[in-house]
Amino acid sequence: MDDDGRYRDGRQDFIRGAKDIAKVAKKQVGKKIGRGADKMADEYTKRSYKRFEEEDDDDDYAGGPGNDGGYYRNDSRANDDEGHSDSTEGHDEDDEIYEGEYQGIPRADSGKAGSIDGVTAAQAQQFRDLSAYEGERRKDQEELAQQYEAILQECGHGKFQWTLYFVLGLALMADGVEIFVVGFVLPSAEKDMCLSEPNKGMLGLIVYLGMMVGAFVWGGLADRIGRRQTLLISLSINSVFAFFSSFVQGYVSFLFCRLASGVGIGGSIPIVFSYYSEFLAQEKRGEHLSWLCMFWMIGGIYASAMAWAIIPHYGWSFQMGSAYQFHSWRVFVLVCALPSVAAISALTTMPESPRFFLENGKHDEAWMILKQVHDTNMRAKGYPERVFSVTTIKTVKQMDELVDLGDSAAWHQKWKLKLTTLFHQVWSNFQAVFSPEYRRTTYMMMAVWFSMSFSYYGLTVWFPDMIKYLQKQEYSSRTKTFVKEKVEHVTFNFTLENQVHRQGEYFNDKFMNLRMRSMVFEDSLFEECYFEDITSSNTFFKNCTFIATLFYNTDLFKYRLVNCKLINSTFLHNKEGCLLSDVSDDNNAYMVYFVSFLGTLAVLPGNIVSALLMDKIGRLRMLAGSSVISCISCFFLSFGNSESAMIALLCLFGGISIASWNALDVLTVELYPSDKRTTAFGFLNALCKLAAVLGISIFTSFVGITKAVPILFASGALAAGSFLALKLPETRGQVLQ
């Protein structure tokens, strides 16, 4: 019995001791959690999350005596050793009640403080969760990049990629057409709309401004709602407003339509290159993206050929009264919308980028598309029995950023929430391009894009303007001058062109059914003369006297009569029209189209060379080398003293610089990860259009004044671009991030 009693007493002592140890441990844990919550509250008040992380790390690993706060501390063993002190004995019930304060059971006098500590702890935990989410997402993206490259290798390169090549090529062709449309229609449109020089300049720049806005907007959206869907929307906007612009009559409405058309086509370049790159394996990417650039050249050739074939045919027109006119240049604008319409039709048959689906957690959709790519290529190569062996693909961890308003919410509230959320997603993605990880790359790319665009677009517009200036100089050198001539009882019914008549006397002469081009009459006398059915351009009468002269159905408006005296003279049934400052005949129009055609065609050799060498010598060498050669070619501009010399230099510069553009497009695609690719590309392309506007405005202001400034500006920008390009990381041989 004594043994049994001792056994029971010992067992009870053991159980009592175990309970004491558990109570003390529970109390110490509660104290540690309380101190950690207080510490987090202090740190959150100071808005110093970085410091919080550092001290939290110190708590985990340092174990120093001064580290007395945080979630994890190495001095907990010391506190546990103190757990059996006499001060803890005999206070079990009080300790149980006191411990409730640290278990989320607020005391009557500390409810408010407890709630604040709970909110602070939740916010701190949210920060920790976000950091962990970013780390997991980055790890998923790295694993996906490697696996996706292996899958593309298994799918091979074949019929599917070539089909997509031609479909996306149509979209890129539409972008090339858009650049040339306004320049080709201006000589004809200025007659219909009575455009002044400032209005013509604005019409030429509005397309670039629209493309700048479109590149930024559509590039950002493509990373959120998909490449294919965004491209369809942007091309639809382009085609609709291009169609409307061919019918509108007023200058303001035409300007708006071309602006909206430019906004639509602005998404073409950033989306097309990103979209196509995500179907290309590493060893094919540089070459085939360079081949894709050829469609921009094809777009320029198409626009030049259509302008040459359509605009000079004035018979291709009709009018409804005097208010509505549809001339041949409007037919040309309509035809230029066809590549965009064709791209929309073809794109509806193509799938979304599987890489976009995987980045957004849509595994099954991506797997089906990759299987389609594999099966299409294998059947075309004669291996239909080969099975797509991939069963599971890594997807990137997602965070749901939408808030469900429920079925009771109104439709406009739901749409407002969706649009607001989408805007914040796009904006945060754009800000991520300037995060510390990508900041240096982005700034360097901005400098290279700006310098390339400033010099290229500035010079390509300066060349045609210089050719026009040289044509005017040559035309002026052939001007015939007549002094003190006397003409009586003569009928002029033939074209008068490029003549100056000074101090002449004309008595009872008739000017009927003729055209006057670049005619100037100075200090002359017209007495009892008759002007009927006269069409003129760049024609003026200065300090002349008209006595008993009749003007019937002419466009010799009074503002063509500079400081003239009218004595018993009459104007009847004046023609409606505009004062045109330039000679715009068919020969000059054909010359403009021919020069544009040659300049566009000249990039073909550069396209071929860059495509064949892109994966062999690397992107940086291609970009820097082409920029240096383009810089050297700028100094040959000083020898361009004739029309033929300027055309040759235009072709030389275009053929060399196209390799730089191809390398820059490939480099931009490969430097940014898939979830930021079109956002970064769109932003850089928008900056490119801004630089183009500045370059065109600056370079054209020196036409006829000096060649030195354009040469220095262009060569300096290209030299800076080639130097900065060498500081960028090489992406040849790397998987798509």
Automatic annotation (TrEMBL):
Coiled coil: none
Domain of life: Eukaryota
Alphabetical list of Gene3D superfamilies matching this protein: E3 ubiquitin-protein ligase SopA, MFS general substrate transporter like domains
Pfam family, one: Sugar_tr
GO molecular function annotations of the record: transmembrane transporter activity
InterPro entries linked to this entry: LD_SV2, MFS, MFS_dom, MFS_sugar_transport-like, MFS_trans_sf, SV2
Domain Major facilitator superfamily (MFS) profile: 164-732
Principal localisation: membrane
GO cellular component, one term: neuron projection
Keywords: Cytoplasmic vesicle, Glycoprotein, Membrane, Neurotransmitter transport, Phosphoprotein, Synapse, Transmembrane, Transmembrane helix, Transport
GO biological process, one term: chemical synaptic transmission
UniProt biased composition (Basic residues): 25-34
Record localization: Cytoplasmic vesicle, Secretory vesicle, Synaptic vesicle membrane
Membrane disposition: Multi-pass membrane protein
Transmembrane segments: 162-189, 201-219, 231-252, 258-277, 289-311, 331-350, 443-463, 590-613, 620-639, 645-667, 679-702, 708-726
Biased composition (Basic and acidic residues): 35-53, 74-90
Positions of the UniProt region annotated as Disordered: 25-95
Protein family per UniProt: Belongs to the major facilitator superfamily.
Protein name: Synaptic vesicle glycoprotein 2A
Lineage: Eukaryota, Metazoa, Chordata, Craniata, Vertebrata
Gene name linked to the record: SV2A
